[in-house]
Amino acid sequence: MAEVLVLVDQVDGEAKKSTFELLTAARRLGEPAAVVVGPAGTAAKLTETLGKYGATKVYAAESDDAANYLVTPKVDVLAALVGSAAPAAVLASSTAEGKEVTARLAARTNSGLLVDVVDLDAEGVGTHSIFGGAYTVKAKSANGTLIASIRPGSVDPEEAQGTPATEAVEVPAVDGAKAAKVTGREPIVGGDRPDLTEASVVVSGGRGVGSAESFDVVEKLADVLGAAVGASRAAVDSGYYPHQFQVGQTGKTVSPQLYIALGISGAIQHRAGMQTSKTIVAVNKDSEAPIFEIADFGVVGDLFKVAPQLTDEVTKRKG
Amino acid sequence: MTNIVVLVKQVPDTYSERKLAAGDNTLDREAADAVLDEINERAIEEALVIKEANEGEVTVVCVGPDRANDAIRKALSMGADKAVHVSDEALHGADILQTSKVLAKAVGTVEGVDLIIAGNEASDGRGGAVPAVLAELLGLPQLTHARKVTVEGGTVKVERETADEGITHLEASLPALISVNEKINEPRYPSFKGIMAAKKKPVEKLTAADLGLDGEVGLANAASTVLESAPKPPREAGQRVDDEGDGGVKVAEYLASQKLI
Ligand SMILES: Cc1cc2nc3c(=O)[nH]c(=O)nc-3n(C[C@H](O)[C@H](O)[C@H](O)COP(=O)(O)OP(=O)(O)OC[C@H]3O[C@@H](n4cnc5c(N)ncnc54)[C@H](O)[C@@H]3O)c2cc1C
Ligand SMILES: Nc1ncnc2c1ncn2[C@@H]1O[C@H](COP(=O)(O)O)[C@@H](O)[C@H]1O
């Protein structure tokens, strides 16, 4: 069986959940081979976990350059492996970086590219959910190696025992005139809440929340529900909540079991990022707000009255 | 002197309903109003700010059908100096890789380019890939998803911000390619004077053949093939209640009835 290369999405030697999703999808197409690109020592920290999700091999591409330049070292390593291992496919997470790596790789290896698929079958047919979930589109690669980025949170990770052997591969030397040097990083410090794209419940606040301090009301409800916190662009633009929590057209796409929108009007660009949620609950004092057109349960009222009462009620019911 | 190329794309307005054409699954450009993508207004704004500080020229490059001319005029009325517009029936259905190839050739017609500025992600396809591929094809450093850009002498510094990685500080020598995110700036409105002046600014029209790409681009040559597409049924509104002092309790009851709590 041919190998399927999986670009490991990791921070400081810890794999993100999306990596396990990629390994699970890779098993449908062939033998998953995890590719770790990072500073020396990164692969060793990851091998055991990667094995738990069925990796049969770990390619360790380790060097200082790998961490000190943006995107290109990963493309260089994967392109070399596409040449030497002739994989059936190359998969990466559909993050900003994953999209860039796969796109450059496809250009360099003259291969078909599928961007941001939400499913991938054994024949290599990818499913896209576009225009904020308004359309489902199926596509396949027509040239070369299948190269795809998969939207985090769209494949259920399944464990499968593998005891991967590690194979060191070279990180080709970086040409400084063609690459961007990383001079510093300020990674997102994950709080105690679940990740937006992974959470089964998301509670979001909009401009109606009114200030950064009052986002407390949103957070308290999120915490009793074990939810992630999201925000509309208006809330982010007004400085109520950080950018990485933006949901919508130009923010994250979420598809949880339950989405609660507090003080969000439901502009089409916001809906584009959340309308595939299983159940939608909205609280808005304007009975005409478009969010009610897609809400399964809507309350016309003041979020500062409704949300705290809901928080108390959920706490009570949990006993 | 900084010579800047800004890549602009005309997209279906996100405020209107967007559709795919039933026949060949390509974007139905007639179905929705077409506008200059908002992120590209920010790209133009950034180019103008850099030009105002360092002098130079701003050239708009656009690949799209004839009516994309409206988007180009808007860019020119904001203050860009001239434009290159690649419009060709043969490009119908071009994918990310092909579009990037065409853009690379079109950028190649502009002399002495120091900086290419794109949007980070178009609002139609949400590919977020063209800038990276263009950097690949042109052999330029890519400094993408910028929320802050500084050009000093022959160096460009960028604060990259993405929702997954947080902030990454980047540096490269010119020439280079950057893409901007929506945090970068607030774009200016075209002034009346700007709109009048734009009418006289040069727009060079090119075809795929002019760029030597005849027979290499378009739906038939795409590296990926769409097999089928289907609209999802729209969501329907469910129950709605007025808060009479028990709104929170009512939501809890609903959630319990759905076994969500
Ligand atoms: C290209 C483009 C991309 C965009 N991308 C995004 C995106 O990714 N995400 C996004 O969210 N938006 C996006 N937008 C912006 C979008 O169009 C809206 O402007 C935005 O979603 C509005 O946010 P909001 O609902 O919080 O604010 P508003 O539209 O101002 O709505 C606030 C709501 O709060 C209600 N309210 C006020 N006070 C209370 C109270 N005390 N109790 C209950 N309700 C109250 C009001 O009735 C109102 O309905 C984009 C726009 C464009 C053009
Ligand atoms: N057809 C096009 N013409 C000009 N610029 C484009 C075109 N397609 C993409 N771009 C540029 O690339 C950016 C990202 O687009 P995308 O990779 O399609 O999400 C856009 O904001 C534009 O700056």
UniProtKB/TrEMBL annotation, chain A:
Task: Give the record's GO biological process terms.
Answer: fatty acid beta-oxidation using acyl-CoA dehydrogenase
Per its UniProt record, the required cofactor names are: FAD
Q: Where is the Electron transfer flavoprotein alpha/beta-subunit N-terminal domain?
A: 4-186
At the top level of its lineage, which domain of life is listed? Answer: Bacteria
Against InterPro entries, the record matches this protein to: DHS-like_NAD/FAD-binding_dom, ETF_a/b_N, ETF_a/FixB, ETF_alpha_N, ETF_asu_C, ETF_asu_C_CS, Rossmann-like_a/b/a_fold
Q: Which residues bind FAD?
A: 207, 232-233, 246-250, 263-270, 284
Tell me one GO molecular function of this protein: flavin adenine dinucleotide binding
Q: How is the cofactor bound?
A: Binds 1 FAD per dimer.
Q: Which UniProt keywords apply?
A: Electron transport, FAD, Flavoprotein, Transport
Under PROSITE patterns, the record lists: ETF_ALPHA (PS00696)
**Where would one find the signal peptide in this protein?**
none
Report the Pfam families cross-referenced here.
ETF, ETF_alpha
Kindly state the subunit structure of this protein: Heterodimer of an alpha and a beta subunit.
Function statement: The electron transfer flavoprotein serves as a specific electron acceptor for other dehydrogenases. It transfers the electrons to the main respiratory chain via ETF-ubiquinone oxidoreductase (ETF dehydrogenase).
| Family membership | Belongs to the ETF alpha-subunit/FixB family.
Name used for this protein in its record: Electron transfer flavoprotein alpha subunit apoprotein
UniProtKB/TrEMBL annotation, chain B:
Q: What is this protein called?
A: Electron transfer flavoprotein subunit beta
Which residues span the membrane?
Answer: none
**Which cofactor is essential here?**
FAD
Q: Which organism is it from?
A: Tamaricihabitans halophyticus
Purpose of the protein: The electron transfer flavoprotein serves as a specific electron acceptor for other dehydrogenases. It transfers the electrons to the main respiratory chain via ETF-ubiquinone oxidoreductase (ETF dehydrogenase).
Looking up Pfam families in the UniProt record yields: ETF (PF01012)
| UniProtKB keywords | Electron transport, Transport
Keyword Transport on this protein? Answer: yes
Q: Which SUPFAM superfamilies match?
A: Adenine nucleotide alpha hydrolases-like
